Amino acid sequence: MNTLPIVAITMGDPASIGPEISVKALKDKKIYEICRPLITGDAGVFEKIITELGLDVKVNSIEKPADAGFAFGTIDVVDLKNVDTSKLEYGKIDAMCGEASFRSVEKAIQLALAGEVDATVTGPINKKSINEAGHHFAGHTEIYAHYTNTKKYAMLLVEDHINVIHVSTHVSLRQACDLVKKDRILEVIELLRNGLTSLGKTNLKIGVAGLNPHAGDSGLFGTEDDQEILPAVEEARSRGYDVEGPVPPDTMFAKAATGAYGGVVAMYHDQGHIPFKLAGFKWNAEKQQMESVKGVNITLGLPIIRTSVDHGTAFEIAGKGIASPDAMVLAIESAVQLANNKKMSNQ
Question: Which domain of life is it from (predicted)?
Answer without folding.
Answer: Bacteria
